[in-house]
C-alpha cells in the first residue's frame, strides 16, 4: 500500500510521547513493506531537525515538513471563544500546509491517508477533494477529556470558566469530525469504547502504541537502587500539573520518611522554576540525551498524572526497561496492567508513600514487578504485531466499503 501520514509533530527525532508513537507507526509500516510518505508540522515547540531524519525518508521527498507558528495569539483566541470554535484546532490550520498537501496529493496516488491526532483533522476535506484514499484517524487521546480533567482540577474560577469554554468547543468539534473518517484507530481499548459511547458509528479499533523490542533490548540491572524518577514532555499540561501536585502534596512526607531517597525529573521543555528549584533531594537534569539510558539507570518510575487520556508511552518504555512503575489510575489507563503484578497503583499521597515504601523495604518484590512488566510488553506491545492488526483493520474497513487494497 501507498500510505500518507499527516503528523502534528515530526516523528523524527522520537524524543517525546507523540513523536515516539508516530515514529513507531511509520517505521513499522515501512518494515512491513509499505510505501510511506510523511507530511509533518514543524513548530516552535517541536521544530524539525533534518539531520535526525533517516536517509530513507529524505530521499525522493518521502518526508516533508511545513513550519507552523503555534504560539498563543490573543485575538484569534478571543474570536474563537466568541464564535464557540475550537482554538486548539484553529492553531493548526495553515494555508502553507494545505498547499503542500494539495501538491503531494496531485503528485502521488495514495491508498490510505492516516491523520495522526485530531489536530490534523481540518485537512480531511482537502484529502477528500484531491484523493480517493481511505482515511483513518489515529487518535492518540480523546482530546476533550484531557481538558475536561484539567478543568476539574483547576481552582481559579476565571481560568476554570475559560477552560470549560475551550473544552466545550473542542468536544463539539471532536464529536462532529470522527464520523467523517472511514475508520478510527484509538490508542487504547478504553478510548475506543468511549468513542463508541459518544456516537462514533464508523469502525473503531483499540490499537495500542507499539515498540521495537530489539531497540529496547532486555531489562538491565538497576545502577542506582533505590531511586525515583519521572520523565516526560513538560510541554504537556497534565505532566506539569501532576508533578506540581506530587512535589507539593507527596514528596515532603516521602523525603521525611526516606531522607536518602533521590527523585530525578527529566524531560523536554523543563520549566525554569523546576530547573532552579531548591527542593530537598530532587534533581532536575532537564532534557536527557537518551531517555532509555536514563530510565535504565534508575529504579522506580512515578507517574502522578491527574488528567489526560490515551496511553502513557513513557510507562510502556519504562516497563520495557524492566522498571517498576508507580502510577495513578488515570496514568495507567489503556495499559493492560495488573496491580502488584506488573505495576503499582496510587491515587492519593498516602498511596504513593505506601507503594514507595513497599518497594524500598522489599527490593526483591520491586525488581520482580519490573521483570513482569517487561514480560507484559513482550506479550502485548511488540510493534510488528500491532502493525499487523492495523493492516487487518485497513482491509476490514475497505472491504466493508466494497473495495480492496
Overview of this protein structure:
With 405 residues, the protein is of the alpha/beta class. It has two domains: 2-210 and 383-400, Glycogen Phosphorylase B (Rossmann fold), CATH 3.40.50; 214-380, Glycogen Phosphorylase B (Rossmann fold). Helices cover 46% and strands 15% of the residues. It contains 17 helices and 13 strands. The protein has helices at 17-31, 55-58, 74-82, 87-90, 95-107, 124-130, 143-152, 157-177, 189-197, 213-216, 237-257, 272-275, 291-297, 313-320, 349-361, 363-380, 383-400, and strands at 2-7, 35-43, 63-68, 112-116, 134-139, 183-186, 204-206, 228-231, 263-266, 282-286, 300-303, 324-327, 344-345. The strands form two sheets. The protein has a seven-stranded parallel β-sheet, sandwiched between helices. α6 links the parallel β4 and β5. α7 (143-152) runs antiparallel to α8, α11 (237-257) crosses α15 and α15 (349-361) packs across α16 (363-380). The longest helix is centred in the middle third of the chain and has 21 residues, at 157-177. The chain is globular, with a radius of gyration of 21 Å. The protein starts with a strand and ends in a 5-residue tail after the last helix.
Amino acid at each position: 500500500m501507498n500510505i500518507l501520514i499527516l503528523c502534528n509533530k515530526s516523528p523524527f527525532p522520537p524524543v517525546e510521547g507523540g513523536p515516539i508513537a508516530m515514529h513507531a507507526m511509520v517505521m513499522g509500516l515501512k518494515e512491513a513493506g509499505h510505501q510511506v510518505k510523511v507530511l509533518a508540522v514543524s513548530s516552535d515547540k517541536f521544530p524539525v531537525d533534518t539531520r535526525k531524519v533517516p536517509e530513507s525518508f529524505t530521499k525522493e521527498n518521502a518526508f516533508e515538513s511545513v513550519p507552523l507558528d503555534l504560539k498563543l495569539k490573543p485575538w484569534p483566541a478571543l474570536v474563537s471563544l466568541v464564535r464557540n470554535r475550537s482554538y486548539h484546532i484553529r492553531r493548526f490550520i495553515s494555508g502553507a500546509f494545505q498547499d503542500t498537501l494539495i501538491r503531494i496529493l496531485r503528485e502521488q496516488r495514495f491508498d490510505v491517508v492516516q491523520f495522526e491526532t485530531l489536530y490534523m483533522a481540518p485537512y480531511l476535506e482537502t484529502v477528500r477533494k484531491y484523493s480517493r484514499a481511505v482515511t483513518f484517524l489515529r487518535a492518540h487521546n480523546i482530546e476533550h477529556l484531557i481538558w475536561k480533567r484539567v478543568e476539574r482540577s483547576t481552582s481559579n474560577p476565571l481560568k476554570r470558566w475559560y477552560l470549560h469554554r475551550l473544552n466545550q468547543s473542542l468536544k463539539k468539534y471532536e464529536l462532529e469530525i470522527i464520523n467523517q473518517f472511514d475508520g478510527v484507530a484509538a490508542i487504547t481499548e478504553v478510548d475506543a469504547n468511549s468513542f463508541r459511547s459518544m456516537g462514533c458509528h464508523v469502525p473503531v479499533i483499540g490499537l495500542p502504541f507499539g515498540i521495537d523490542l530489539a531497540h529496547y533490548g532486555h531489562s538491565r540491572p538497576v545502577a542506582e537502587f533505590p531511586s525515583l524518577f519521572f520523565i516526560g514532555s513538560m510541554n504537556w499540561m497534565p505532566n506539569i500539573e501532576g508533578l506540581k501536585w506530587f512535589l507539593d502534596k507527596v514528596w515532603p512526607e516521602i523525603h521525611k520518611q526516606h531522607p536518602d531517597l533521590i527523585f530525578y525529573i527529566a524531560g523536554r521543555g523543563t520549566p525554569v522554576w523546576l530547573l532552579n528549584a531548591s527542593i530537598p533531594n530532587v534533581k532536575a537534569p532537564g532534557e536527557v540525551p537518551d531517555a532509555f539510558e536514563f530510565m535504565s539507570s534508575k529504579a522506580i518510575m512515578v507517574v502522578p498524572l491527574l488528567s489526560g487520556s490515551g496511553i502513557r508511552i513513557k510507562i510502556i518504555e519504562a516497563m520495557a526497561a524492566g522498571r517498576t512503575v508507580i502510577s495513578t489510575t488515570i496514568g495507567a489507563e489503556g495499559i493492560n496492567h495488573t496491580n502488584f503484578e506488573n505495576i503499582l497503583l496510587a491515587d492519593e499521597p498516602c498511596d504513593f508513600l505506601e507503594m514507595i515504601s513497599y518497594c524500598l523495604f522489599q527490593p526483591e518484590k520491586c525488581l520482580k514487578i519490573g521483570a513482569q512488566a517487561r514480560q507484559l510488553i513482550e506479550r502485548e506491545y511488540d510493534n510488528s504485531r500491532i502493525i499487523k492488526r492495523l493492516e487487518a483493520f485497513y482491509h476490514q474497513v475497505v472491504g466493508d466499503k466494497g473495495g480492496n487494497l
